[in-house]
Write a structure and sequence with these properties.
- This protein has about 210 residues and is an all-alpha fold.
- Helix content is about 70%, strand content about 0%.
- The protein has helices at about 10-30, 40-45, 50, 60-80, 90-105, 105-115, 125-150, 155-175, 180-185, 195-210.
- Helix 6 packs across helix 8, helix 7 packs across helix 8 (about 155-175) and helix 8 runs antiparallel to helix 10.
């Protein structure tokens, strides 16, 4: 194991947290959430657990940071793809929105665990920071959709929230779980898994039609 040198400057601390997040995201792409521990993260980093504890106390604190980064990337991407004053028709907007969802799909995968797992084992200070960042991004999106589509802020919020939660649900449905596959086969059932892009495209179109209706 390489010698660990504790970060001294804010820049170094940020670099350490970036490394922690990158390793955790890579592990999550390889194995189920319950198999990831601070020990496995430290081992992949080449650190001791004591060194990792200098930055986080639980793995949920790392996943909360990944959620925050994913939320910001999604919001920034959507705001760039759907600029102020845009006159996209609803069909075009649905395609633009779909591409941003697909480009930031890991964010929605984390969403499956956010309220029930991730937010239950973090400090209130970290959670407050996450919530402040989340709602700031949500407000930016609400303002853009409200202005471009000529709808009230409350309705824009409902539109964005409906698409978010449906995406989280469909992403979870589409995830490959070997245990579920085996169980379905044992039960003699044919598993019905939707095409993610098709399902989301149709749902976004439907929501845009509904929430923009007079």
């Amino acid at each position: 194991m390489a010698d660990f040198v504790r970060a001294r400057s804010e820049e170094q601390k940020e670099q350490r947290m970036t490394a922690i997040k990158e390793v955790t995201a890579a592990l999550f792409a390889e194995r189920p959430y319950h198999e990831i521990t601070l020990a496995t993260i430290a081992e992949r980093l080449g650190w001791s657990r004591a060194a990792l504890y200098k930055y986080v106390s639980t793995k949920e604190e790392i996943f909360l940071e990944l959620c925050a980064d994913g939320n910001t990337a999604y919001a920034n991407g959507l705001l760039t793809a759907y600029p102020a004053g845009s006159t996209y028709g609803l069909e075009v907007l649905a395609e633009v929105w779909l591409e941003q969802i697909c480009s930031n799909r890991s964010y929605f995968t984390y969403g499956n665990m956010l309220a029930s797992i991730i937010e239950t084992n973090v400090t209130v200070e970290r959670l407050a920071s996450f919530k402040a960042r989340y709602y700031a991004n949500q407000d930016r999106l609400i303002e853009r959709f409200s202005e471009n589509l000529g709808m009230g802020a409350d309705r824009a919020n409902q539109l964005l929230t409906a698409v978010y939660y449906h995406t989280v649900g469909i992403d979870g449905w589409c995830q490959h779980n070997p245990l579920v596959v085996e169980a379905v086969e044992l039960a003699g059932i044919q598993r019905r898994v939707p095409d993610f892009r098709t399902e989301m495209r149709d749902f976004i179109r439907m929501c845009l039609g509904y929430y923009t209706a007079a």
